[in-house]
Amino acid sequence: MQDPLSRIDLNLLVSFQVLIQEKNVTRAAERLFVTQPAMSKTLNRLRNLLEDELFVRSSHGLTPTPKTLELERPVNDILSQLTELMVSNQEFDPANTAATISLATLGTSASVGMPAFINKLRQHAPKVMLLSQNIDAKWEDRLRSGSLDFAIVAKKRFSDDFVTHKLMNIKPVLYMRNDHPLANVNQITLEQRREYQHMAVYFPNFETTRDDMKKLFASFGILSNVPFLTTNLMVCLETLRETDMLMIASDRLMESSLISENFVSKPLDDLINLKIDALSLVQHVRTKNSPLHQYLTRLIVESFKET
Fold first, then answer.
1. Which of 45, 163, 186, 195 is a good FRET partner for 59, with 20 to 30 A between their CA atoms?
2. What is the pLDDT of residue 155?
3. Range of the domain at 148
């Protein structure tokens, strides 16, 4: 009887992992530096090997079949263990380590330390490709499955299967354009704030329902007049620049020259229950002994401390 493993090419597993992450043949081909026809042939080989369609085409790209979802975590675990085994058997050299690392971030705060991290990565580990994306509601499941390596979130309690590192404290402040009617007012009162409409960047994994959002803004003294919520920071900033609206966001945004040169921030210290959060780097316990992940963790923590 033929050994089933004799039919498996390790590159097929890597391709399978990337196809799950990208859900798009063209983007998967670009990540693996192969042509689109070559990636299509690889997908067909996977379908024949696993005797399943694996992905069904839809208007949103490739939709995984139940079989693919069932295999996602085991394949990620296998590739992670193989990577750790290969690296642990030789002296870790970041300059010559080729890998793809995925990181999900809170754009409103994580952008502060990310430029420094990317610069360090470019200089010291040029063969590591970083895939940075906005946080979503499934970031914990993705860390567990291995489709995500790190997440940067504002959360106080974590499950026991996660390893965390505090990056910095953040607190909410009020943003407006430079020539806003309130820009030169030193102490903005609650009554003055209520005269203007508010917007906010929010994240589905923290405030998901309408009632949750009402409670959030009520804690800022705003009971109504909040017509615009978005998960896109750039949309918020462009709207803020073109209108008299006010935005509640992290104070750390002002550390970016792109923000400080175009907007003014005002404190919200008059609020009784001002919420101050800690931004944390999170990874699954499975990767804590990986030399590559240890190195990247150190780079990220150092980059945020420098800001």
1. 45
2. 80
3. 91-167+279-307
